[in-house]
Amino acid sequence: MMKSVSAEILLKRIGRSLGSLHLSTATQVQPNTKTHSFRTEENNVLNHTLDHVGQYYRIPNDEKKIYLYGGLPKSYQIQTRTFNETCLMIRKPAIDIMNCLKSIDYTKPAVRFVLFGKKGNGKSLSLAHILHYAHKTEFLLVHVPWVGNWMRRCKEISHSETKEGFIDLNIDAAAWLVHFKSQNEHLLSKPEFRTTQDHVWSKREVTPKDSPLVELVDHGINRLKYASNCIVILAEEIKQLSRAGVCKTLVAIDGFNAFFYPHTRVFAEKKEVIPPHRITLTEAFLNLTKFDWNNSAIIVTVDEIAIAEEDHKSHLPRYLLGKDGFEHLDPFVPVFVDHYTPKELTSCMDYYRERKWVRYVPGQDKELSLLSASNPYKLMQLCTSL
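Structure (tokenized):
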């Protein structure tokens, strides 16, 4: 009798312990089992509105090819491989520009937008979101992933054969042509994309008028010494095609202010520093960012880390572009990219928890918000060690 009573009491105690353990576990996982409001089911970028701000959308695998050769920051690319999916947060600056692109009168001169904000606030990812939208709406994309790579980490230099005193970055130029061809393959195959004039490269090499535009691109890729000059010619051909109504063009350049910062790391003989205005590629993209053409829109970012300056006094366009750069773009529409709002920071942390990147701890979001100052890049760095 005593044994059965003891067993009964023991079973009750075990039941109470299991019950308290179940409640404790439920309390711990509750933040992770709530409705996933940080994701949107609307993965079609054409349907994104301000109602989706602060939510993540997944880029379909067949549409990720526009970032194959650049477009996402390297640290974010590593994260997408870790999470086994490519997701972007929908943010207000990108939606504002996309709404403008829907309502612009493309018969008028090109409208220019400048994304600015403190480093790490998400300018490049906002530009990536806009690129996805432009790709889906059949824009011809002229996208430079990061100008700073040309001005500070160029692969090789050579003297221009067509412009005395200019420097060619032909390996970088050929790589960009591959990027351009990859992003616009679906458009370049159309018969209306043809050259508007003859282009003579040498006594034996000519790209005649009415050749497919892709032949001009391929010539720059296959004949490396002409790659930089090919981009200069391609820039003018794109402007002519847009003026003629063959296509709508979106020019998107990340780190545009590097074109105007005099202290590059491009050196000629005797360690002479070559300023950007003497680099052939600069001529091409300054031509594309003028407003002397239509059927186009121009979006650039200005960034503190695009230039080799340690003590940054300001993140504002007037300071980063300098007098020449500001006058080149003026007039333009400034678009400020701020740090995360409380809703965006919560969405980011919920996404990290869903991907098993961080573990839930009470009060974690508030603490990380203070440590990172709600800066997206700093928040990502802080979470890598959690």
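The mean pLDDT is 89. The longest strand covers residues 111-116.
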